[in-house]
């Protein structure tokens, strides 16, 4: 066990060059839980986002993944200022918008757009799709006669037929509604688009089309994306970096490719091995579902088992420890800081995977670590026993 | 387990009158659902999977909708059954997990009450017992703090948790047919495995049959027995899981399988996708619906290819493509473990 001093000015950005477009510091979003019959009182708080520090660079795509309920949507909504942070700060283009009111946010709304996870709930059922897409254009003063052309062009870009503009949202399939959300977000040519599960409802071919489209738009217009997904197979293609979240905290932040070849955190590694393979024979050999998803490693696959965590009363130490196959006494007691590995790869784990002894010895505590994390960095000896994945 | 099919669907057609014309969302869909089997329905977004599934539950009877064909369940004709009869069956005999959890849960009602309501509508159990059952169900589908969540409102739950509530609701009365429309789309892979396991145990314990609508071919490979591939309202190919994955006959199926991104493979420069758009269902191409996007299209494709067995000795593998079987096997691109859309012999590489 080694305790290392805080390094010099470090940051979690991909390159040190420019200021990130979005900067989130020690952000916490807690939801009160109230109970009681006549007089409601607060009996606890859901720790939806629990001390997250993160930067999104202009023009990059940051993938955000993690299991259901870990706080991805809440973090996204906080960045969009659609939910109020409990603590911490959010900056957009260097300007602190944590406390900004409606008036100050107004001009920024045009620059930040969001594609919502639940496409149906976010589309007004009484408006035709053309009107829905036109709305942001109108609000922000686009000339009236240009709008219809623009709507047709946007529909075409997301793979819908221009004549669909006259339909109501309920007349579309799930995947089509999702694309309407994408078209609406693109309408104003914003600089940041937060995409909350934008392709989970789409078949693989349309998924590929949308991802290719987002790729092209990024090249054409220099867009910045925060791309939220719950599984790792989708985000790989589009992301420059990927952040893995668990129970309101960041577990790992890595250059995209490296996350797949070299997952450092046991949770990431579990997520990777749990991805179903579209090959019946290979699956039969693996037996992921046969194992009940319940932890018993079968056919060499360990699916994360154990009780799903409780965000009201998060576990002590490393929040992942109750479900982690590598957990030790240390993990139960001390919260691991985000340690910085080679190439700007960060991971919060006392017993990292896939890293050599030298690399482990050279780690430093990243300043984006939660304030509650200890100073204990993984020592080289622990790395010896690394379970290789792949 | 009885021998005959649980559900027999013949030439099912659903059209909607919309401003742009008549939208033919489902066209000549025919299949049998056997007890204890998992039939996966896959296909392009917007090809009619949900409309087909909801029609079986009598949930697409909009004023602008028209129906053709039949769907028999235990002697009952579902397509023109009365509302009263459908209500008796819905939830108890045939249950559905909806693609859109938010619009199918009542936003102003606690999630537990919604499930209790369904249990009590079909079984005369006392409230306390129903409540206990709900807590157990929520726990079974992997909702943390299940006992507290009985009293939560839908907006207090994350997207994935709402989906799990829907799944608990569907399982609450032990149905004999479960129609699951994208049940695990909103869920991460670890919870997904749990849910699929539960669907499997429902099947194993009660012999229930499952229609699983999904675009996740990994999930299909894992739990389906048979697959129906849909394109623009029609089933274009149908067969066992192995037949579809390892000997696919329809060029759309090749394209679909070829678009899969696999984390266990190198990352391609650009994701492979089938070029072009699916047809507007109000203005479909004559003949084979895939024709405008198919690199193998020829004269004959202007006639509608019937869904029939085309491989000698395999009566269960059906498809709608005019190409001779040998030709198909030659043209599709097969790399180890991968299938591609292929191209017409002599055509330049894309
Ligand atoms: N308005 C709210 N009131 C109370 N709790 C909430 C509220 N919104 C979210 N939560 C809780 O906060 C946690 C994080 O929710 P969030 O929607 O951010 O998760 P997520 O990562 O987006 O999950 P999913 O993948 O299922 O969409 C969950 O435990 C959820 O129940
Ligand atoms: N009420 C309606 N009026 C007009 N058209 C409709 C209506 N409902 C659905 N449609 C159209 O019918 C087609 C089939 O829709 P359906 O929801 O079944 O697609 P799906 O295969 O489930 O797609 P996804 O994978 O995106 O959910 C779509 O093209 C849709 O636009
Ligand atoms: S810190 Fe410990 S419990 Fe947490 S992921 Fe690493 S090994 Fe597992
Ligand atoms: Mg979410
Ligand atoms: Mg659907």
Architecture overview:
The complex is a heterodimer of chains A (390) and B (350). Chain A folds into 2 domains: 22-245, P-loop containing nucleotide triphosphate hydrolases (Rossmann fold, 3-Layer(aba) Sandwich), CATH 3.40.50.300; 263-387, no CATH class. Chain A is 29% helix and 21% strand. Chain A has 13 helices and 15 strands. In chain A, the strands form 3 sheets. In chain A, strands 7-8-9-4-10-11-13-12-14 form a 9-stranded mixed beta sheet, with helices on both faces. In chain A, helix 3 (129-139) runs parallel beside helix 5 (174-186) and helix 4 crosses helix 5. In chain A, 53% of the residues are buried. With 350 residues, chain B is α/β, with parallel strands linked by helices. Chain B has 12 helices and 14 strands. Chain B has helices at residues 49-56, 83-89, 101-104, 111-122, 127-140, 146-149, 159-171, 189-206, 217-223, 241-246, 251-258, 325-331, and strands at residues 7-18, 21-33, 38-43, 65-73, 76-77, 94-97, 177-181, 209-213, 226-231, 234-240, 308-309, 318-319, 333-335, 338-340. In chain B, helix 4 (111-122) crosses helix 5. Chain B is globular, with a radius of gyration of 21 Å. The termini of chain B are far apart. The mean pLDDT of chain B is 88. The complex binds adenosine-5'-triphosphate (2 copies), iron/sulfur cluster and magnesium ion (MG) (2 copies). Iron/sulfur cluster binds next to helix 9 of chain A.
